[in-house]
């Protein structure tokens, strides 16, 4: 298996575990979601980030989870980029979300293109 692909998966797992927990418990994240006007979506976002991370872990045992989890995380980061830019944040502020979008998109494309998911 491709080393870059594995590194991207591990990075995504670790970062979304961390940020998912941070979104659920850190006061700074409560303030960020208030600034975005998305307070009611904060807990849902944290839970989805944790589920995406767990889905990537499950993907080591059930490959179809990899595409679903990374696809969901890609979509979330796309929304995150749009939200940051609409709130007037700079491209530099949106860069972490852009990078995670690209990493998870790579995971999806690699998993589909290399045949990580068994053909039927």
Automatic annotation (TrEMBL):
Subcellular location: Membrane
Protein name as it appears in the record: DoxX family protein
One Pfam family here: DoxX_2
Keyword line: Membrane, Transmembrane, Transmembrane helix
Regions crossing the membrane: 12-30, 67-85, 97-117
Signal peptide span: none
Alphabetized InterPro entries for the sequence: DoxX
Domain of life: Bacteria
GO cellular component: membrane
Recorded topology in the membrane: Multi-pass membrane protein
